[in-house]
Design goal:
By secondary structure, the protein is of the alpha+beta class. It contains seven helices and 15 strands. An eight-stranded mixed β-sheet has the order 4-3-5-6-7-8-9-10, sandwiched between helices. A five-stranded mixed β-sheet has the order 12-11-13-15-14, sandwiched between helices. β6 and β7 form a beta hairpin. α5 runs parallel beside α6. It is globular, with a radius of gyration of 18 Å. The N and C termini lie far apart (about 45 Å).
């Protein structure tokens, strides 16, 4: 039986993601302006990004004022309830700026440090992905049709389609490209989608055999990691570690370990 608290958190996450996604989709101006910069001129924070986070955090505060928050755009405070929300209001910012469809609103809820709810909304795909710990992973399309998610059947590594991402800092990106170059002959192919949250959900949905990336923050991966795991994928970082800044991997059970070994051998976690 689903924990009533988890059901409450899921419904709130779905509502917040839906509203933020609509704001981003419908309110995107043609001459989208830059509000600030992040780590380099390529990686930008937009006015819409900030507005979406404000919408999400205001809705959460209205319904659950004692919860903690960790948001990409600065909304961060400790709570007293044991629940913390981990929020990326716009994952795939550059895609959004350029009018590409692969961007998402990612919202996760943690209870006592463990992720128990994850929601990733992709408005231009017309899909919302969700998971509750122990309850499987699901997707709903624009017409309200719902389906259970399941990662692909195990395939040999040389037949695996794997996605990755690249950092916006030039030196780091250069190293990541070198790792990808070594991997390409060993895989079916590599994709680069531009949103960690969407890539993780694509592993869950069986559209990818694997995904890896270095340099992710908690808000990039919290919801998608849970969705991938609940769909049967394995997730982790370097051997024996959880996914995090050094390395994040999600893959089908047959692909995860050989991919992790190669990434360790290739030094994917450092320059």
């Amino acid at each position: 039986m689903t924990d009533p608290l988890h059901t409450e958190l899921l419904r709130l996450a779905e509502e917040a993601a839906r509203r933020a996604g609509e704001l981003l989709r419908d309110g995107r101006p043609a001459d989208l302006t830059v509000a600030a910069t992040k780590s380099s001129p390529i990686d930008v924070v937009t006015e819409m990004d900030i507005a979406a986070e404000k919408l999400i955090t205001s809705l959460i505060a209205e319904h659950r004022p004692d919860d903690g928050l960790l948001g990409e755009e600065g909304a961060s405070h400790a709570g007293s309830s044991g629940v913390r929300w981990v929020i990326d209001p716009l994952d795939g910012t550059v895609n959004y700026l350029y009018g590409l469809p692969t961007w998402a609103v990612s919202i996760a809820a943690e209870q006592d440090g463990e992720t128990v709810v994850g929601v990733v909304a992709t408005p231009l795909r017309g899909e919302t992905y969700r998971a509750v710990r122990g309850g499987g992973a699901w997707a709903t399309d624009a017409r309200g049709h719902e389906r259970a998610l399941s990662c692909r059947q195990a395939a040999p590594l040389d037949q695996a389609l794997v996605s990755t991402g690249f950092n916006y800092v030039t030196d780091v990106r250069t190293h990541q490209a070198a790792v990808a170059q070594r991997l390409i002959p060993l895989l079916r192919d590599i994709r680069r989608g531009g949103s960690a949250a969407v890539d993780l959900c694509d592993v869950a949905a069986g559209r990818l055999d694997g995904y890896f990336e270095r340099g992710l923050h908690p808000w990039d991966l919290a919801a998608g990691d849970l969705i991938a795991r609940e769909a049967g994928a394995l997730t982790g970082g370097r051997p024996g570690e959880r996914p995090g800044r050094d390395l994040t991997i999600a893959a089908t059970p047959g692909v995860f370990e050989p991919l992790q070994r190669l990434l360790e051998d290739f030094g994917a976690w450092h320059d």
